Structures are given as C-alpha cells and as structure tokens.
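Page 47, continued from p. 46.
Same chain as before, 232 aa.
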Amino acid sequence: MKASIAFHALALSVLVTAAAGAQVGYPPNRSPFVDIERTQEITLLGGYFSAARDPAGTAPRSGALTGVHYEWRASGPAHLTAEFAHIGSSHELIDPAKIGAARDLGVVNRSLYSFDAGLAMSLTGARTWHQIAPLLKLGAGFVSDLKGTPDSSGFKFGTRFAFTWGGGVRWIPSATGRFAVRVDVTNRLYTIGYPESFYVPPTGGTAVLSDGQARSFWTNNPAFTLGISRLF
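Result:
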C-alpha cells in the first residue's frame, strides 16, 4: 500500500514538473514574449485612402489620409479603439442633361471626414512577440463630406454610415517605453447612391447610367496608414 502511494506521488510529481516545463518554454530573460506595461496609446496617422471606382465617376476619389487614433487595452487581448481622419478627396462634376464632352464639368476638391469606434484583438494578448504585436479590428462609424445639399449634377454624398475592419502590426521596442510604430490596413464599407437624373437620357444622347445599374450599392474603400504612437 505504501509502495503504491509512493509510486502515485512520484508519477504526480513528474507530471507537474513536465507541465511546468511546457508552460515556461523559455528562461524569462530569453523569452520572445514580453508584457506590455502601458494600456493606452494615441497615434498620429498618415497614409493613403484608396476609394472604389464607381460607374458614374462622381463619387469621392482616392487621396492622402491624415488622422489620430486612440486605443485602450480594456482586458487581455481586447482593445477599444476610436479614430478620426481627414481625407484629401475630390470628385467629378457632370451635367447629366448634356452629351459628349459638354457633360464633363471638371473635378473639384472636396475633403472627406471619417470617424469610427470599435474593437481590436491583439493576436499576442497583452504581450509582444519579438517586439511586435499583430492585431485584427472591427468597428463602425461614418464618412462625410459635410455637404447637406446635392451638387449641380444632383449627386450627393453627404454623410454615410460605414463599417470598418482590417488589421495591423504594432512595433513596440520596449515594454516600458513610451513610443511605438504601427502599420494598418483599414477598409471602410459604405454606400454610394445616384439621383434619378443619372438615368434619364438627354435629347440626342444616352443617360449617364443604364437602368440595370443599382441606384445604391456598397463599396469597399481600403486605407493604408503608418503611425507613430505615444503610450501611457
């Protein structure tokens, strides 16, 4: 009986030791994983917004993006985020009642403003792996040109609800440091809508759009950004 108890105790000791060794994996001073001590960060962003090309060519176009991003590690791998961005966009003016070259009224500059809030998940938890921390993110917000009335063609972008998603990588050289660098790809999914005038043929010509073209549809508009972060 005593031999049996001793055998089971020895077996349990071996299992515990093996489990502890499997959990540690690396000596603490050589582990590729390092805890991130600071839980908040604010980032200045710069990059490029790649707008979807629409059939009529009147929707907001691609342009440079600048903005500010806030992130708070709420628990474990979960981060709450908020972002505001300015997009140096432009769009084409047309006159749907005219034909040929006379229809094109030129391109005008019209900035877009974007705001979204959401949730990001760090794939390495509250730690870095070899000083990097990849993440995935999902959110919602709006994109607006701050215009409440249609342009001369009858087209209006206005303020559009937007879903956002994407991913990125943060480079945090020091767990106790106050600065980091991040690269992100963020897609903004919003709708484009056309006025009825785009479907009415002018005298002696064809309409801007055929009846088979949807009046409203969703578009994907990715942005690529590089940011410098202040951790606190």
